[in-house]
Design a protein that fits this description.
single chain, about 190 residues, four-stranded antiparallel beta sheet
Length: about 190
């Protein structure tokens, strides 16, 4: 009987020895897959948090540009074209001011070419006529200086006209500094 007990114990030990190795093998194969899944879940959570933070930053914490402009004008000691009524920022309707028509010679290698241009400047908020009167000579000087360096090819195609408009907005906005220039509108643009 003692031999029978040993025989019974031997297969049991072998069977028990085989089973844990098989389970470890199965767990060893499953462990890398679970690590990959864990990395994907963690990466997705981090990406989701980053998106939420970006949306909050852009929409919730974004300051109004009008308030920033008013604060900058106050801090620089400049003229504030926006009025403050009871602590609330009040911005008037846009103001349109026509510039005198300009006739300008263009740079060409053959013959004379001329540009006739009529512009309207769009300002945001109320515009003080005294400040506007002081800014107009600077605006016209910058406009003449810039237009005289252009060539007739600079007016071909809508992309070039759009680029001209953006350049004028930048240059004339700097020339009419205390005023808040929002847009440059072409009333007439003729190249002869």
């Amino acid at each position: 009987m003692a031999d029978d007990d040993k025989k019974d114990d031997a297969p049991t030990e072998e069977a028990e020895g085989d089973t844990p190795e098989g389970e470890e093998g199965a767990e060893g194969g499953a462990a890398p897959k679970s690590k990959k899944k864990l990395l994907i879940i963690v990466g997705g959570a981090v990406a989701l948090i980053a998106i939420i933070v970006a949306v909050l930053f852009l929409f919730v914490f974004k300051s109004e540009p009008e308030e920033t402009d008013a604060m900058m004008a106050d801090s620089e000691g400049g003229v504030d074209i926006n009025s403050i009524d009871g602590g609330a920022l009040v911005i008037g309707p846009p103001v349109y001011k026509d510039l005198a028509p300009l006739n300008v010679n263009l740079l060409t290698e053959r013959g004379n070419r001329f540009l006739k241009i009529k512009l309207t400047l769009e300002y945001q908020g109320p515009v003080d006529d005294i400040i506007y009167g002081e800014a107009i000579p600077r605006v016209e000087d910058d406009l003449n200086t810039y237009l005289r360096q252009l060539r007739p090819d600079d007016f071909k195609g809508t992309a070039n006209i759009y680029k001209l408009k953006e350049d004028l907005l930048l240059r004339l906005g700097q020339s009419s500094h205390p005023l808040n220039l929002k847009n440059v509108l072409f009333r007439e643009l003729i190249v002869q």
